[in-house]
Amino acid sequence: MMDIIRVEGTNRRLRALEPQIINLVSEVIASGKYLLGPRVDTLEKTIGQSWGVSALASSSGTASLQIALMAANVKAGDEVIVPALTFASTAFAVQAVGATPVFVDVDPYTLNLDPQAAHAAIRDNTAAIIPVHLHGQMADMQPLMELASKYNLTIIEDCAQAHGATYHGKYAGSMGNFGCFSFYAGKNIGGLEDAGLVTFSDSTVEQRIRRLRDLGRTTERYVHQEWGLRARMGEFTAAVILEELKYLEDWNQRRREIAARYDAAFANLPIKTPTVALGCGHVYYKYTIRMPSALEREKLQRHLAKMGVETERIYPTLVSDQPAYTNGTPHRVEDLYVAKEAVEQLLCLPMFPELGEHEIDRVINAVQQYYSYVAYSCLLTSC
Ligand SMILES: *Cc1c(COP(=O)(O)O)cnc(C)c1O
Predict the structure, then answer these.
(1) Closest ligand 1 atom number to CA of residue 93
(2) What is the pLDDT of residues 253-263, one digit of tens each?
(3) How far apart, in whole angstroms, are the C-alpha atoms of residue 159 and residue 305?
(4) Best substitution site from 10, 58, 89 to test ligand 1's pocket, by max atoms within 8 Å of Cβ?
(5) CA 345: distance to chain centroid?
(6) pLDDT tens digits, residue range 3-26?
(7) Overall pTM surpassing 0.85 (yes/no)
(8) How far does residue 182's CA lie from ligand 1's centre (Å)?
């Protein structure tokens, strides 16, 4: 039986850390503090120092986006620009504060929010833009920041896929008014449960974020200053993420090495490998290739499955085409030429730091073999 090479490696990562994780369970139980305690504090300080920004933990990436939108006072009647090619949470958070998501097209090379398309989508009631750093590469922040200052908009970076990614030397989460991270297990770092983090540079929003994540409270247990979410991070989760944080740079480096091997091996094949924009430090949350057509993607995906290589389509549908929006839920859609085409063509290959050299070879050989078959059948039919 041939081993299947999985497309992501969460289980391998957590199994390798199992002895440490089990110790952490005991430590946290012994400490007597289970939520928003000293481990959460340390995590916030460590991340803040590494990425040059202030940070407060929360219960998920989705909750972080909602907290940021609330802290920015985005409300019913406002519009918020989001890329159409993203995870549903980016738009759902907008919904959650009563505002309207506006789905905008992406750049054909990086697949991140297209600043020109974002510009064209701005109206009088536009309150914020949420650029998503898709697949591990930061969106083109400079023109977006210029739009924000010209039209007085809040920028909330969706950093759920970009732990440690950089843009001209600046870390994801340190450029916009807010940055929102997820520590769901499948991300570049993540524990065993849902967890997240909000980053911000303006210290005047700190108290507000503390309140919003904890039912509107700060220090007094039964004093609720305002309506807030139940979105605390647990001490155990913080301890696991702190442990993983020690390896993040190495893991991201390994992801880049694997990407470089794939890039080189596929350079002469008719598939588009990920484009890294000038000045961007990619952290390859996903290694996503783009096939010439939906049919070609289907054929390659089936071939790879036969060869024991798992792949995935991220995302199989644009958020604006999800039942959650086609059912009449208020939203607005701009022209989505690039996103509509890309969504039919993208395919993620196995990408995680624990991939062994022989596994990388197997993925590469399987892709190359597909093209030698194609070339051979073309010769036979002289196409
Ligand atoms: C994972 C993800 C989220 C949501 O994070 P959760 O922790 O799962 O709530 C939001 N945006 C993007 C782009 C994501 O990939």
Answers:
(1) 10
(2) 999 999 999 99
(3) 31
(4) 89
(5) 19
(6) 999 999 999 999 999 999 999 999
(7) yes
(8) 6
